[in-house]
Amino acid sequence: MGLATAQVLSSEGYRVIISGRSQDTINKALSEVAGDCTGFPLDFTDAASVASFFEQVGSLDHLALVGSGKAVWGNFRDLKLEDLKVAFEQKFYGFFLCTQAALGKLRADGSITFVIGGASRSAIPGTTGVAAVNGAIQAMAFTMAKELAPLRVNILSPGLFDTPVYNWMTPEQKADFFKQMGGELPVGRVGKPDEIGQAVSYFIKNGFTTGAILDVDGGDGYIKYWLNQLGCFRNLTSLFSGSRGVGLEQRDLAEGQVAHETIAEVYMQALHNKTAQGKTFEVYNEKGNPLTNWSAAFAALLSGAVFH
């Protein structure tokens, strides 16, 4: 994602400075970036290395931190303190050190963009450690946006992207994985690395945006939000009995006999104007006229108007 960000910003006319742990890594990246781009070695877990990097860089207009560290996976009860410490040292403290060192170099009304994972807001079992690291960066960024103003501070939270991190799979396995996972998203595919660069470019250019989180995830967060809402209902009979306003008419199945998993499937399929569970569903308004915009109609259905 860092390389793609450099490529996008360079193509837009920015003078880009990249970093890497070794000069070989930097040279390889520079060979793939057209335009005005230079680079210097950086180990952002080492304060001396960070200080040296920013001394070489000089003045800056914007800072984008896309670095990653060791992710600590596993259930909370099984997490090892030492592993969690390493995860914080390799990402949170790295972001902290780089940002603090950059403050004396950054333009007063420039910007800082933190690229983090979405685990801190997803509540997915087995990601407690990852959520802790990214949540700490998120909390720090929100406070910084207020404290460092007019310098702008924002967060970019990517979803599933086709990056080299998945190269441990065979090409066929990776293609099947991306096809399956991407097919479940409203956009119908996984992300392209340059789309992260475009999002970073937005934060750089838009002077009215600070303290914001931008989810670049193909609609994954939107789906998870609504599916979580749906999961709260054990009995959905009220969806089909005497409701006023927007309603859902289910054909070929008895009234009130649908489990919440089926309704979730309705939503997933509705985004693509398809049928769910082999049945046809129709959304209509209070006048009995069908609503052809599935996503808007289903959102209206869930808004509370149909519940008593």
Give your account of this protein's structure.
With 308 residues, the chain is of the alpha/beta class. The protein has helices at residues 2-11, 23-30, 47-57, 81-102, 128-147, 171-183, 193-205, 220-230, 260-270, 294-301; strands at 16-20, 37-41, 60-65, 106-115, 152-158, 213-216, 247-250, 281-284. The chain has a four-stranded parallel sheet, sandwiched between helices. The protein has a two-stranded parallel sheet with strand order 1-2. A two-stranded antiparallel ribbon has the order 7-8. Strand 4 (106-115), helix 5 and strand 5 form a beta-alpha-beta unit. The longest helix has 22 residues, at 81-102.
Question: Keywords, please?
Answer:
308 residues; alpha/beta; four-stranded parallel sheet; two-stranded parallel sheet; 10 helices; 8 strands; 41% helix; globular; disordered C terminus
Please summarize what this structure is.
The chain is α/β, with parallel strands linked by helices. 41% of the residues lie in helices and 15% in strands.
Considering DSSP H and I runs of 4 or more, what fraction of the residues is helical? 40-55%
Distance between the termini: 47 Å
Unreliable spans: 231-283, 291-308
Number of helices: 10
Shape: globular
Question: What is the strand and helix layout of this fold?
Answer:
Elements lengths: L1 H10 L4 E5 L2 H8 L6 E5 L5 H11 L2 E6 L15 H22 L3 E10 L12 H20 L4 E7 L12 H13 L9 H13 L7 E4 L3 H11 L16 E4 L9 H11 L10 E4 L9 H8 L7
Parallel strand pairs: 1-2, 3-4, 4-5, 5-6
Antiparallel strand pairs: 7-8
